[in-house]
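Re: beginner question about structure tokens

> Can someone show what the tokenized structure looks like for a real chain? I only ever see the sequence side.

Sure, here's an example I had lying around. Input first:
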Amino acid sequence: MYDIPFGCICGILVDEVMMKKIAKLEYRFVSELKDLLINNKDRLEISSWGLAYPNCKQTTFRYIGLNTGQTIDDRINLIRNLIEIKRCEHLYETNLEWSMKNKEKLSAFAQKDMEMLGVGEE
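And the corresponding structure tokens:
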């Protein structure tokens, strides 16, 4: 199975046949997106981002006009994949009610399984 995350805590799992279809669709989309951007460079600006801490709260902001040494073409060429697809190596089937009652057991089981497989070892 392959995991496609939507945000930090949820997503979907797809089989290999579906993953290949999604990858082809994404490739076409990225190609069309790059073409659209290249053909409309006069409507684009290079942007960068930074962090500020107003009232002690971390806030991101964007700015334009800073010479980074990169061109619009350089930025467009950085576009690769918009969807993060990862092979799901550790998949455990359970149900929500059991999982909520047995969080420690499930975590211990997963930890033991990963240790046996050598996950995280250098």
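Each token stands for a local structural state, so reading them left to right follows the chain. The two ends are 25 Å apart (CA to CA).
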